[in-house]
Amino acid sequence: MFKNDIFERLTTLLDTNKARYRVMEHATGGKSEEVAKIRGTYLGQGAKGLVCHVKGNNCRQYILAILPADQQADLALLAKQAGGNRASLASPKEVSELTRCVFGAIPPFSFHPDLKLVADPFLFERYDELAFNAGSLERSIILNTEDYRRIANPELISFRKVINQR
Asked: How far apart are CA 55 and CA 80, in angstroms?
């Protein structure tokens, strides 16, 4: 097993780039709704990370796809936008190898050369701050949205399921 140094890597990256953020220690939450309540944030502020494997059309790519926690991913759309013809969620083993994190603790940053970072543009439209687990289910970072966009510099790909919104 590896040493989980993701939190240290994150805070060093954020400090080096003069990001506006705060760290919150908390009890482990199960679902995104529970974690948002514990953090005192809106569900939509959560930056949910999905590790996906996109294949087809001569494309084989692992992608860390980031979207608001109150949205669902359309994996077929993600595959198409990324140049493939199908996408699936990576296995727990692949997730662990590519992110050095367990499911639910993946921050919206990629520290692995084979893991391409993409974000749905909707992530940047509603809130001034994003919240995410920082390599641990018991530790979160609440980060200024524009600082996240500037520092992580994800490729913007629309891949959320658009459901009839009120």
From this structure: 10
Contact 62, 98 (CB under 8 A): yes
Q: Based on the structure, what is the number of domains in the chain? A: 1
38 within 8 A of 26, measured Cβ to Cβ: yes
- Mean pLDDT of all residues belonging to the chain: 93
**Residue 1's pLDDT band (cuts 50, 70, 90):** very low
Position with higher pLDDT, 20 vs 29: 20
Q: Which helix (H) or strand (E) holds 158?
A: none
Residue 4 vs residues 9, 75, 76, 96, 151: alpha-carbon distances, Å: 10, 28, 32, 10, 21
The residue segments making up the domain with residue 151 are 5-156
Helices (H), the chain: 6-16, 32-39, 75-81, 92-99, 145-152
